[in-house]
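Model: Ready when you are.
Researcher: Fold this.
Model:
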Amino acid sequence: MSHTNVHVTDFTRSTVRRLALALGLTAIFVVVEIMAGLFANSLALMTDAAHNATDAIALALTWWALRFTTRPANSGKTYGYHRAGILVALVNSTTLVLISLGIFYDAYRRLLAPPEVKADVLIGVGLAAVAVNLVTALLVRRGSRHDLNIKSAYIHLMGDVLSTVGAVAAGIIIRFTDMDWLDPLVSIFIGLLILWNAWGILRESISILMESTPADIDMETLQADILTVEGVRGVHDLHVWSIAQSLRTLSAHIITDDIPISESSVVQSAVSELLNRKYGIGHATLQLECVDCISPELFCDITANNHVHMH
């Protein structure tokens, strides 16, 4: 356990350093891109600068949340501070939705009356943006598969890489054709891309905060697997939820024969090992009961139980 904790701490420190570097690069480039967008009269550049600004905010929040989640559990926060990262992911994705709506409005106005765009500036700054966004995205990439907080920041940055490629393409076409209306059209494409990325993070964040069952877990299959463990006679009051994207927990009542505690601990260990190995559930609270305690309900209605207790 101590070796694992050391590994997690080292990984967190490394991630915090990489996030800080990515934040610095992004913040500097936002200023450069805003100045270039104003000079070139390019909505695509201004749009990308706005997106980069949200990236800087997202990286700052991600950095804060990652440091915050390392705090140990206490009597006030018995599960620790892991949900801080989920809250940040929710804020990041909501911000992206609002930015997208603003982009659509500005693009609509410019499509009605396309202004002249300085294509050379758009191309030059766009190429620089691709390089900066790609570097910062690669800095944040490690750990994004198993942490929704880091994933939200990574998607922010990868969205920028694709959107700036689109801005450069628009600049090249405008340079040779004077089709200035392509600038707001690319902005709409960028807005749609941002909205699509934001929706996935927003949906998963809300699902975790609502304590939904993880999408890749089928409860009937999980129940059937538990029943295959030797000594298990039944399962009820079964709950599975996520504290964070990679931190799953389960509680259940396990029915066994009327056996000594020493034997029931073997059953409990076997169920816990199965849950960890097959479903990635590292924290399982199992209440063992004898066969006479079997309940007809697989899932417990907390509201109904609380109503009975109040009466």
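Researcher: Now this one.
Model:
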Amino acid sequence: MTGKPAVVLLSGGLDSATVLAIARSEGYVLNALSFRYGQRHSAELDAAHRVATASDVARHVVADIDLRLFGGSALTDDIAVPHHDSADDLQDEIPVTYVPARNTVFLSFALAWAETLKSSDVFIGVNALDYSGYPDCRPEYIAAFEQMANLATRAGVEGRQQLKIHAPLIELTKAQIIQRGLALGVDYSLTHSCYDPDPAGRACGTCDSCLLRRRGFTELGLDDPALAVPAEHAV
């Protein structure tokens, strides 16, 4: 057990819940960071609260920013969320659910909090295999941000911080991520991944995120709890 503080970006989804469990298993003191960024529903923040509570984090902060000011995404603007019959129907181009610069904004907030916590460790649940093609989920992006971050803070310049961006899921399939999380005791019924839930917070089952998530569970011979829980715990 290291007992060192870490900042973990926690959206409330499957990937971020898994990363939180990984950081906990490595002995870090968990400081979870979520965002109310102008997304069209609050279901993921409700899930982030459930996951953080179940994980006994030291602190869970929800930062308020408003990316609706810029628009350009189906998650923050008046743009329809795409739906498909199968994950095999997903295209290679970057989808309209991409939020411009979102991970850069989120990681910048995490960098600021890490400096005040005297932490050199930030965890993020990006994935470059079973994902929707977002440019800010690639290994080269994470490496570039880490290099920039170590030039950007007082603690870094003074030699008190050597920031590491941990992206332990980046080369895993969705099935491998789920398998890793289950081994660490993650309760995926607490999580929310859907881009377009109904008013009760239930997953649609047909957006990109739902389809990729369900395919991961199916490959393991499991049912996705996102489609099998009561509305008050909808994911």
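Researcher: Key takeaway?
Model: The two ends are 31 Å apart (CA to CA).
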